Amino acid sequence: MRAVRGLFALLLLLPLVASAQDSGNNAVRASDYSPASEGRVVIRPGEDKTYYEYRVGGEIREIRVEPDVGPVYYLVPAKDGEYIRQDGSQMVVPSWVIFEW
């Protein structure tokens, strides 16, 4: 009886294994995937601060500054090429609920 159950389970899994082998040729590694339109974060350590540059499409959207002592603040580019200091982030990050229990 166990042999029949094992054979039945094997027959059910066989199409999954075959389709996984077929799609393996088109797979992309996570380390190789880097679309140009996606946001990037560049971390630059300083002497007494750490800078997190948030870029979208190659443009800096905001810089998060984490000083060794003191609260975190953000630098947002202004229209004249300067930066405006803010206490909170203005970036909107999309989030979706994939699964809820």
TrEMBL record:
Keyword terms, alphabetized: Signal
Pfam families named among the record's database cross-references: DUF2782
Signal sequence coordinates: 1-20
InterPro entries on file: DUF2782 (IPR021357)
Protein name: DUF2782 domain-containing protein
Organism encoding this protein: Tamilnaduibacter salinus
